[in-house]
Structures are given as structure tokens and as C-alpha cells.
Design brief:
The complex is a heterodimer. Chain A is mostly helical. By secondary structure, chain B is α/β, with parallel strands linked by helices. In chain B, α2 crosses α4, α3 crosses α4 and α5 packs across α6. Classes of the chains: A mainly alpha, B alpha/beta. At the A-B interface, α1, α31, α33, α35 and α39 of A face α1, α3 and α9 of B.
Chain lengths: ~650, ~280
């Protein structure tokens, strides 16, 4: 066995060690030469060493490895360490310790420490001041904005840190001071990048003006990217009108057009600048630029923003639609058809596009028709469903699925047993979403089709119909020879609910077959209270997989006896039963369950401790904070994260209550 | 992802690491989710917890664990991938142990052999080396994998075009016969290769002790969790003859992670020599 493995094995047994030996082992392994050992030691240090002790290690400037491990452990302690760290920050004269403390607070990211950090932006040690500025940026501390603005004229490094922090905070008050740094300061580019993070209403117009004014290529590209980021953040809501007016009225519009046109082409600039140029070109009132811009965004895989861009341009697009839809590149036509607003590209035009020579354009038209509820398109869409490419068939099915069921009579041609199973399944998929009542006889016939996939698709349609002929078909499907069909039929009976289905389900509990665990699960999801007694009495004679379902089902059903049942399960030796019980106890936790949650919080199993944290999140913070702070230091990350979320969540509730 | 869901995934990834040694933490969690989508659908599991219950407690859990192994290890490979290792065996290993090879065959293990491209490439390289005189007793290439479907394909020695992506026209002609769109490895290049199913992370692994001159385990350790990784390295050490070589993929390293091996440079690349006990 390697030395590292031996150290890790000893650490794994640390929980059972007496205090002095435990601390000694953790402290020794915090400096182990193997990174994997150190990583494990850090997890235990976070769990077992108090923040004050860890801070003491951070203050040891002679042993860098130990200090770095202690810093990592403090970060892992998260909220548990915040108050002690603030105490150190305000009480120590050690500048290096103050810097490390600020960095740890930054990474913990708890904004409650912003007030204590604020005075340090004027610290005489520049490293400390810089760390404080970065912390305030990470906390998004709006109160710090005036203090950060005051640093704009000072030391360059602090100025740079302040610029970045102002960008992170995103407060509009920083707009003017940041603009003043462009283009003739050493921090011009960071200032532009910070501007991109401020509210669009404040910066869109000045950035557009800068784009026209600047000549220096690096600054100009930075502004281009910044403006595009502002547009991309929310194209529909950005008040670009004033900004576009600036561009419209720019004296050097040909220069701007040429620049955007060139930057949009592949290979002429960086991908980031190309994307930005394309975004801007699609946003400015220059229709000649739109095709290249849309193609560039498509090539860059960035089409999610296109609908919002075209929405913002819909008035101009409506005027230009004939020209645009005749574009020689079918991809341009497809993008416009798929993403343009309905008042720019009408349903009539989409219908015409279903005849386009290009399959991609026809597919795009199908996709767009999906949101138009255009009944006239049904015959052509059904034709594409039968004869189109895979993409066309999918798009046609999607479009048909958005229409009213009484307009879908032509779909009957696809619902015959002799058709290709794939076609039948797609047609049934349409009916599943639209409701297939007009075609119910055909669908019932297809529920007996030779293909199990068709049978399942037919059952899915039937499950959504309020027709008394459906339940017998679903109950019959419980005996289907293909194992997936009964399981799905059961799910559907659950979805349908109703006394008849519920009685059938409770009846199925008596059959100890392969379906029973699904029946138990279904009864739980339906919260069938009258099944609780039967489920509980069934528990001792069941196999483990059914027992776990019973625990889950009884938790969902609730009822007065469930806590006692869960306590009994938690006392079982079977780990999975204990975990399932813990899950239930957490889900049902009330104030009276605190002793049980405390026991769970000390359990050896991480999953049980995690459930304890979830349960504690349901209780008032005053009662649970110490336990949650302990769990927030748990060696398992997911437990620690759950506890931190519980601390944050309860803090938020408290803040709301105070407000 | 909610923390409740993250806890469910942890149950599942812990189980997978315990059973197969494979680690799916961090960004690899998404890969796992993508690979398991078909299993979730087939068993109608709505979340990781339901699938975890199936694997832990369902009467048909053993069958599903087999399916899971197939799903997790369905990794593609191709002939003559990182072929410098094969050259290294011919140029450096054979001359170094020629005295021993007068009385016994050369023994090599291909660990995680997938559909057989690696062990067969090794045989083809040995045959092409012209060093038959150094191998009077021939060779034994043992090749193991967790995935029975992949092993069946390896035994059938029939491949798609994609497995031959590094083979030029001459190599294709020399080593394969074409049947439609598929390529069948000629019988003589399968000589001395034995395939067997093996879970390298299982509590007991039938690799024996001091058996192999070389172990190839390439581009597989990166999928193992820390504990399984260290266990496996020690198993490889036991399975090698003293001074035997372990060859890993170019992105893998065991430098400073075990005292059982010493890194050495052969043929311009790092390989790991089993330390000789004092």
C-alpha cells in the first residue's frame, strides 16, 4: 500500500478517534505532500477544527502549505466561519492575515460581511485594500459604490480593482465615471467591460456613441463586444431606441456599416467580435446587414437571441419581408421563417413556404406554423408527415400537435394498422397532445396493434380522453405480454385517477407480482389515504424493493400514524430502509421532530445527515442554527451545500419577516 | 440542479464507483445522465432515486447491473491507436527479456480491451516486427473488458470502417477481408489472443501474480475514482513480473502516486516499470 493510501485510510477513521489524536492527525496531514491526502484532510479540518484555530494556522507565514490548507478549510466552513473571520479582520494588525481573511470572505460570498469590509478599501497596505475592493464586488455591495467611485482617481491598481468591482455590482451610478475613463486611461478596456454589466437603459446609448467616436481598434472592438452583450442580455427590453438613433444619425454611418459588415464575416476577426458584430448588425436599422448577421449567429450556434432581435425589428422586417424571403441562401429564409414575429411573417407566407424547394425551409415553416394554429395547413402538414424527411416529419408533427383536434381529420390516413409503425406513432403523438376524441375508435383498435410501441402510443392517447371506454382498455393492458406496456398502463391509470382506477389499484396490491412495486408507487403519488393501512400491513411480508416503495408512498399519503412507522423503519438495520425513512422524516419535519433530526444529523451515513439538513430547513432558524452550522462543515459536499442552503433560506425568511 | 436531486445522483454515482470503480463526479455527471437516459426510460424511472432503488433492491437488479455496465463502458476505439506502445514492446521489451523468452511465451495483458482493436493491433505489430526468432514460444495476449457485448464483438473480429481510421489502404488489404461495409480480421492475426470478461474493480480479479511482461491499460484509468485507481494500480503491480512494464494512455500518469512503479522513458515516452522487491 502506498504512503498516501495509508494516510487516507487513517484519515477515514478519524471520526472514531479521541479528540487530541484526531486533531493531531488532521494537523499533520494538512501538510502532507500528496494532494489527495491534503484534500481529504481539509474536509476533516473544516468539520473538526474551529475557525479560530484555522485562522491561527493562516497567520503562520512560515509554513505556506499549512496556511493554504487552512484557507481552503475556512472556505469550506462557509457561513460558520464568517463571524470569526470578521472578528479577525477588525481585530488584527497583521496586514497579510487581513488580506487572506478578505480573500476567504470573498470566496465564501456572504454579503453580510460587507459592512465590516468597507473601511479596508482605504487600508494603507495596497494588497489589503485591493482584496477589500474585490470582496465588495463579489458581494455586489451597492452601498460601496460611492466609496469605489472615490478611488477612480487614486492608485492604478486600486482603480483597476474598483472598476471591476463596479462592473460586478452593476449600479447605474457608475456609468459616468466609467465612461470618463474611455478612451485615454490605462484602464479604458476594463472600464468598457464594466460598462457592459451596468443596466442597459443607462449604457446602451453612450456605448453606441462610443462605437461611432472611437478609432483605436482595440477599444472599438471592446465597445462592440460590450454593446452586443448589453443587447444580448435582453434584446426586447433594452431601450435601444436612443442608441439606434445615435447610430442612425451617425455622421460616419458608411464606416460603421463597413465595419459591421466586415466583422460579421467568418475569419476576419475573433469569434467574440464576430458574434458581437452580428448581434449589433441584426439590431441596427440596416436590413442589408441582416442576412449576414443571421447567418453568422447561426454558424456561431447562438440563435437563441434571434427571435428577440427579430421581434425588436418587426416593423422594419414587415416592410422588407418580400426581399428577405427571396434571399438566395435557404438558411436565411429558414431562420427568418422560424424566428420572425407573426406580424412580420404571416401564416399565409408560411403556407407558401411549405412548397419551398429546400427541405430546411419547409421544416422551418412547419416549426413556425406550430405557434400559428393555422387549420388550413393541415392537409399539407399531413402530407409532409407521410412523405417528408425526418426533420420535416418531426416539425410537421409538432405543428399538427398545436392544432384543434376537430381540424385533424386528414390525420386518419396515418391511423390505420397497415401504415408504417413509425408513422402511426407520430400521428398518435399528435393526438396525445391535441386530444383524440374524434378518432377514438381507431385509437382503441391501435391499442391492440402488433407493435408494442404502437400499443403504448395508443394508450397514451386514450389516457387523456374522458371516455368510459378507456378504463377497460387500460386495465386490459396491465396484462400485456410486453413488460413496458403494463408499467405504462399503470402510470396512465394513476394519471386518470377516479374511484374505479383507484379500486383497481388497491386490488392489485394483493397480487405479489412484478408490477406490485409500481402499484405501490402509484398509490403514493395519488395520495390514496384508504390504501395506507393495507400498505403498512403489507410491509413485513414484502421484498426490499417493495418496502422502499411503501415507505415512500406512506410519506406522500401522510396521516397520523406515518411518523411512528418511519421511526420504526429508521431503527431497522437495513441501510436503504433507514435512508428512505430519513427522507420521509425530513419531508414531514415539524418543530416536535427536532430531537429526531438531531439524531439524524449525527448519523454515520451521509445521506441520513443530508436528510437531517433538509428537515432542519423546515424549522425556525433560531432552533436549528447550531445544527445547521455543524452540517455546513460536513465532510460530504452535498450535505454541506444542503445545510448552507437551509441557512440561507431561513435567513431570507427572517429578512422577509423583519421587512 | 436542486440539491435534493444532486443527493440522488450521488447515491447513484457512489454505487457505480463501488461496483465498477468508475467515477462520474463533477462535469462527468452530465455524461452519466445522458448515458442513463435510455435505462431510465426502459425502466420508467422518473428520477435517479428510482433507478438507484432498482439497482439496489429490485429482484432483477443483477440483470440491470449488467445493462448498466454495457451503458457505461460503450467506448469506441480503433486499430493502431497510440501505436508507439506496440513499437515499444517490439523494440525494447523483447530484446530486454530474450533469455526468458527462450523458455516461455511473451505474456501481455490488454486491460479494458473494448472490442479487441488494441490486442489485435499488438499481435499485428509483433508479427510485423520481424523478431520471430526472439519468440520461440510465441506470445499470449490476454484481453479483458467489463462489457460482454464488446467482448463478443472482439471474438467475432468484425469491424466497421470507423475502427480502421488509422489503417492505410495497404494495411486494410494485408490485415482484413472486406465483407460488404464491414472488415473481418484475417485469422492469422488473431493468434494467441484470449478474451475474458473481467470487472477490474471487483473485489477479486483473476489476473494472477507475476504473470505478465507488459500490461496495457490505456485511456481507462481516467474514468476510475481515487480508491479504485489505487487498488487497480497495486493489482497491476502484482500481476506483472518484477521489472514488467505498465503502459498508460498519454494523458494518464501514476508518477508520485505509488511506490510500486518507477517511471522510465522508452521509445521517447513514459512507461512504468514494476519495482523489483528488495
Amino acid at each position: 500500500m502506498s504512503v498516501a493510501s495509508a494516510a487516507k485510510q487513517r484519515l477515514a477513521a478519524v471520526d472514531a478517534m479521541p479528540e487530541p489524536e484526531r486533531l493531531g492527525l488532521i494537523l499533520a496531514t494538512l501538510e502532507d505532500e500528496a494532494p489527495t491526502v491534503r484534500e481529504q484532510a481539509i474536509r476533516y479540518a473544516a468539520r473538526y477544527l474551529e475557525p479560530a484555530r484555522l485562522v491561527h494556522l493562516v497567520a503562520n507565514h512560515e509554513r505556506a502549505l499549512l496556511r493554504n490548507s487552512a484557507i481552503a478549510a475556512l472556505e469550506r466552513q462557509g457561513p460558520y466561519a464568517v463571524a470569526p473571520l470578521v472578528d479577525v479582520l477588525t481585530g488584527s494588525a497583521d496586514a497579510e492575515l487581513a488580506m487572506f481573511t478578505l480573500q476567504v470572505l470573498t470566496r465564501i460570498g456572504d454579503p453580510s460581511s460587507a459592512g465590516a469590509v468597507l473601511p479596508f478599501v482605504r487600508h494603507e497596505d495596497l494588497n489589503v485594500a485591493q482584496a477589500a475592493i474585490e470582496a465588495l464586488g463579489a458581494f455586489r455591495a451597492a452601498d460601496a459604490v460611492p466609496h469605489l467611485l472615490a478611488l477612480m482617481a487614486g492608485n492604478l491598481w486600486l482603480q483597476l480593482a474598483a472598476v471591476n468591482a463596479l462592473g460586478e455590482i452593476g449600479d447605474a451610478r457608475a456609468t459616468g465615471p466609467l465612461l470618463a475613463l474611455v478612451p485615454d486611461s490605462l484602464v479604458a478596456i476594463p472600464a468598457i467591460q464594466a460598462l457592459a454589466r451596468l443596466p442597459a437603459s443607462a449604457v446602451a446609448e453612450p456605448l453606441a456613441q462610443l462605437l461611432c467616436d472611437l478609432r483605436e481598434p482595440a477599444s472599438r472592438e471592446a465597445v462592440l463586444i460590450a454593446l452586443a452583450d448589453v443587447i444580448a442580455r435582453d434584446p426586447a427590453q433594452v431601450s435601444l431606441a436612443p442608441a439606434l438613433a445615435v447610430v442612425d444619425g451617425a455622421s460616419d454611418e458608411p464606416t460603421l456599416t463597413r465595419m459591421l459588415s466586415e466583422a460579421t464575416r467568418a475569419g476576419t476577426t475573433s469569434p467574440a467580435a464576430r458574434r458581437s458584430a452580428a448581434l449589433l448588425a441584426a439590431a441596427v436599422p440596416m436590413p442589408a446587414l441582416w442576412p449576414a448577421a443571421l447567418l453568422a449567429l447561426h454558424e456561431l450556434g447562438d440563435t437563441t437571441v434571434v427571435p428577440a432581435l427579430l421581434q425588436a425589428q418587426r416593423r422594419r422586417l414587415r416592410a422588407q419581408v418580400d426581399t428577405c424571403l427571396l434571399h438566395q441562401n435557404p438558411l436565411v429564409r429558414a431562420i427568418l421563417l422560424e424566428h420572425a414575429a407573426p406580424d412580420a411573417v404571416t401564416s399565409v407566407r408560411l403556407m407558401q413556404a411549405l412548397q419551398d424547394v429546400d427541405t430546411g425551409v419547409r421544416t422551418a415553416a412547419c416549426r413556425a406554423l406550430a405557434s400559428r394554429h393555422c387549420g388550413e395547413a393541415v392537409p399539407r402538414l399531413v402530407e409532409l408527415l407521410k412523405t417528408g424527411s425526418d426533420a420535416e416529419r418531426d416539425a410537421a408533427a409538432s405543428a399538427l400537435a398545436h392544432l384543434e383536434s376537430d381540424t385533424l381529420a386528414p390525420l386518419a390516413a396515418c391511423l390505420v394498422a397497415s401504415a408504417e409503425p413509425e408513422l402511426i406513432i407520430q400521428a398518435l403523438g399528435v393526438l396525445e397532445q391535441t386530444g383524440g376524441q374524434p378518432q377514438i375508435e381507431r385509437v382503441i383498435e391501435l391499442a391492440a396493434h402488433a407493435s408494442p410501441s404502437v400499443r403504448r402510443a395508443a394508450l397514451r392517447v386514450l389516457a387523456g380522453l374522458p371516455d368510459r371506454r378507456v378504463d377497460p382498455v387500460l386495465l386490459k393492458a396491465l396484462g400485456d405480454v410486453h413488460p413496458a406496456v403494463p408499467a405504462e398502463a399503470l402510470e396512465m391509470l394513476v394519471q386518470r385517477g377516479g374511484d374505479r382506477a383507484l379500486n383497481s389499484l388497491i386490488g392489485l396490491l394483493s397480487l405479489a407480482d412484478s408490477l406490485r412495486f409500481r402499484v405501490i408507487r402509484a398509490l403514493g403519488r395519488l395520495r390514496v389515504a384508504r390504501a395506507a393501512t393495507k400498505l403498512e400491513s403489507l410491509y413485513p411480508s414484502c421484498a426490499l424493493h417493495e418496502q422502499l416503495e411503501i415507505i415512500g408512498a406512506l410519506v406522500l399519503i401522510g396521516g397520523p400514524g406515518v411518523r411512528a412507522f418511519l421511526h420504526a423503519r429508521f431503527a431497522e438495520p437495513e441501510l436503504e430502509a433507514r435512508r428512505a425513512a430519513a427522507r420521509g422524516l425530513a419531508a414531514l419535519a415539524g418543530t416536535g421532530d427536532l430531537p429526531q433530526l438531531r439524531t439524524m444529523a449525527e448519523d454515520r451515513d451521509w445521506n441520513v445527515r443530508n436528510e437531517a439538513a433538509r428537515g432542519l430547513a423546515r424549522l425556525p432558524l433560531d432552533d436549528t442554527r447550531p445544527l445547521l452550522l455543524t452540517l455546513a462543515r460536513d465532510i460530504e459536499s452535498v450535505v454541506s451545500a444542503t445545510a448552507r442552503e437551509a441557512l440561507g433560506g431561513t435567513s431570507a425568511r427572517e429578512r422577509t419577516a423583519q421587512a | 440542479m436542486t440539491l435534493a436531486l444532486e443527493a440522488e445522483w450521488k447515491l447513484l454515482t457512489d454505487l457505480i464507483e463501488e461496483r465498477f470503480g468508475l467515477s462520474f463526479t463533477g462535469v462527468r455527471r452530465d455524461i452519466l445522465a445522458s448515458r442513463l437516459a435510455s435505462r431510465f426510460q426502459a425502466l420508467q424511472c422518473g428520477n435517479p432515486l428510482e433507478y438507484y432503488y432498482h439497482l439496489k433492491s429490485h429482484p432483477e437488479r443483477d440483470r440491470e447491473l449488467g445493462q448498466l455496465a454495457l451503458t457505461l463502458t460503450n467506448n469506441e476505439t480503433y486499430f493502431f491507436r497510440e501505436s508507439h506502445h506496440f513499437e515499444c514492446v517490439a523494440r525494447h521489451v523483447l530484446p530486454a527479456i530474450q533469455d526468458e523468452l527462450r523458455v516461455r511465451p511473451l505474456r501481455i495483458l490488454s486491460a479494458g480491451c473494448s472490442s479487441g482493436e488494441e490486442p489485435y493491433s499488438l499481435v499485428m505489430s509483433l508479427q510485423a516486427s520481424g523478431l520471430d526468432a526472439l519468440l520461440p514460444h510465441g506470445w499470449e495476449v490476454d484481453a479483458c473488458d467489463l462489457n460482454p457485448a464488446r467482448l463478443a464483438q472482439a471474438r467475432a473480429a468484425t469491424y466497421e470502417e470507423t475502427s480502421l481510421r488509422s489503417c492505410d489502404a495497404d494495411a486494410r488489404r494485408r490485415y482484413f477481408t472486406q465483407e460488404g461495409s464491414r472488415f473481418v480480421l484475417r485469422e492469422r492475426h488473431r493468434a494467441g489472443v484470449r478474451f475474458f470478461a473481467c470487472n477490474l474493480a471487483a473485489p477479486v480479479m483473476p489476473l494472477g501474480s507475476g504473470r505478465y511482461d507488459v500490461i496495457l491499460c490505456r485511456n481507462m484509468l481516467i474514468y476510475f475514482g481515487e480508491a479504485a485507481f489505487l487498488t487497480l494500480i497495486e493489482r497491476f503491480a502484482r500481476a506483472l513480473v518484477p521489472g514488467g512494464l505498465l503502459m498508460l494512455g498519454h494523458s494518464e500518469s501514476i508518477i508520485d502516486r505509488t511506490p510500486s512503479f518507477q517511471a522510465v522513458v522508452l521509445n521517447g515516452m513514459v512507461v512504468y516499470r514494476r519495482c523489483v522487491p528488495d
